[in-house]
Amino acid sequence: MEGETGRCVRVLCPKKSLLSSKNPGLRWLIGSPLFLPPFTVVSSFRCLHALPDDDPYSPDFAKEADEIRMLLLRGFNIIGALFVGDGNWEKCAWKAVEASSKMRKFLFGDGDCDLIGAVTDLITDDIHFFVSHSTNVESMEAVSTVVFEDNPETYVWEKGCLLRCELELKLPVFVPLDKTSEIVSSLVDEAAAKLRDPYVAYLVEGSNVDTDELSRSIVLHGMELDSKPDHSDSMLLKASMKESGAKDLACSHFHLKDKNISSSTIRENADAIQIAVLSNQSRNNCKSAVPVAEYFPATEYARNLNVNFKLDVLCYASEDFTIAAALSKLVIPGLIDQLNSIKKAVIPELLSQQPQLCPYHFLPPELLHPVTAIYDLRYGETEMKQGEMRRSLHSRLGLPLDRPLLRIANALSFGMKNTKDTHSVKYGSSLLKNVHTEVPTSGVSGGIISLIDGSYEYYHYLLYGFDDNGWGCAYRSLQTIISWYRLQQYASIGVPSHREIQQALVDMGDKEPSFVGSREWIGAIELSYVLDKLLGVSCKIINVRSGEELPEKCRELSIHFQTQGTPVMIGGGVLAYTLLGVDYNQASGDCAFLILDPHYTGNDDLKKIVNGGWCGWKKAIDSKGRNFFLKDKFYNLLLPQRPNMV
């Protein structure tokens, strides 16, 4: 073991994600040696499968590789491992390096390269990093400089882009019952080999998500691609840059870059270079022939099968990487990997009900890069088998186990034209978000602040020119609450308009048909009905006889924000507010309420909203003796519950 090195490890994922589990085991460190600086950690995947002796530090490499190969985009790779547990740091770091080296070979057949070995200190939560230039322990060095980036998305997306290829294969086959698996497996292997056929054509098109400009497109043939196996990450990019010719257009030629691209914009509408596989059936053939049909009588029982494969591969590359290199080194290997993965799942069930496997791509808020999950559509999303699979994925990715981040409704959308009406309440992407982050302190001395957990949009009077002044405050509070469920990905429906809210109440029999289109008020009870009908969300309701009793509920509200984290609607008299948090001193009883006021009628000027007190801390009785909550009015507090689901 040598001394400390001047090398720098750069960590883009939050440190807490590396420390998310206190259980002994390994976490695979994910990076992009081909496109990002060396020793740059983008994310980490938890190792879930150990050998039969249940040693958490002895991974079942075959199982781990099969699952991670489906999950991880080509363009990313394992660059090391994190050892979670006690012991000698150097020895543990070596175990991590050794495991990650073996894992790379199982995963993509990669040879030895520079790797990171990291070790956590379970007492102090410190992480100690080491680097190795080979699998020889003598070359390992401690790292003196570790940088946790404040703006990690810049490193991934400033010069990065996505490539996507969809391919549907249909293999009709007539096979003997006792040779079904063997023959189908052979046909799939032949189909995989044809992806590298010199006469296969690849149509490459740029995406036009946010522009009317004609897309740029080219066609490349297999003979123009470098299909020779080469696993040297460091040399590949340099080689691709030295090539010349039309086939060596860079990915930037097809990728219309948005200056404000980020993980959040990708979640809303992913922009990817689109690639289609075309089989060239019209190429010249030196031999002229007429169609010939031959008859082979079956000598044993046989069966006609139609085996379908739906492939959808997403890859990551830098903009200056040539499109030919991206096809040969990322897209085609990705298609072959996915085809083989689906083949393993389909073949055992060929003679029963075939799995309906379909890939989906996700970018949960906790990750910087997309991942791919393959779901069996024979099972509904609420069925146990699908739930168990999503729970396993959440555990591997370090995602919370009470949020549906990997449901099909939350999969990335690609190539969708931006046709939504900018004045549509349904989407509301242009609305102000998280207004409370700019408000001054509450003035409560020694209090504990409990706030909403997550993002929301601010809905208020006259928004988008709809005149609800004097009657629509509860509707606006409900819209803010539903926006919270949308932004936390519990729901995929649009935020309903006033009329849609009224129609929902009529549909469930709570109101008469004449209620639709009226200006009648609604309260906490009606809001709970709508949340249950539209989102399946349950609510608690707290009744308070007088506004002066509301401070007595601060402890209960504090617990709500700590455990549920959802916005609360407060309705009293003819007024409704949205509560975003409380600041409560249990010893003195002093408290303040963080109020988002839907009665604001101006434009979405954050400074004006905060300075005008439309979002801010309110005490039940202010310094001038004025009551914010009325003594002679009763109040209902609606506490929506966070669904416990994945």
UniProtKB/TrEMBL annotation:
<dbReference type="InterPro" id="IPR012462">
    <property type="entry name" value="UFSP1/2_DUB_cat"/>
</dbReference>
<dbReference type="GO" id="GO:0006508">
    <property type="term" value="P:proteolysis"/>
</dbReference>
<protein>
    <recommendedName>
        <fullName>Probable Ufm1-specific protease</fullName>
    </recommendedName>
</protein>
<comment type="similarity">
    <text>Belongs to the peptidase C78 family.</text>
</comment>
<keyword id="KW-0833">Ubl conjugation pathway</keyword>
<dbReference type="InterPro" id="IPR049387">
    <property type="entry name" value="UFSP2-like_2nd"/>
</dbReference>
<keyword id="KW-0645">Protease</keyword>
<dbReference type="InterPro" id="IPR038765">
    <property type="entry name" value="Papain-like_cys_pep_sf"/>
</dbReference>
<keyword id="KW-0378">Hydrolase</keyword>
<keyword id="KW-0788">Thiol protease</keyword>
<feature type="domain" description="UFSP2 second">
    <location>
        <begin position="269"/>
        <end position="415"/>
    </location>
</feature>
<dbReference type="GO" id="GO:0071567">
    <property type="term" value="F:deUFMylase activity"/>
</dbReference>
<feature type="domain" description="UFSP1/2/DUB catalytic">
    <location>
        <begin position="449"/>
        <end position="638"/>
    </location>
</feature>
<dbReference type="Pfam" id="PF20908">
    <property type="entry name" value="UfSP2_N"/>
</dbReference>
<dbReference type="Pfam" id="PF07910">
    <property type="entry name" value="Peptidase_C78"/>
</dbReference>
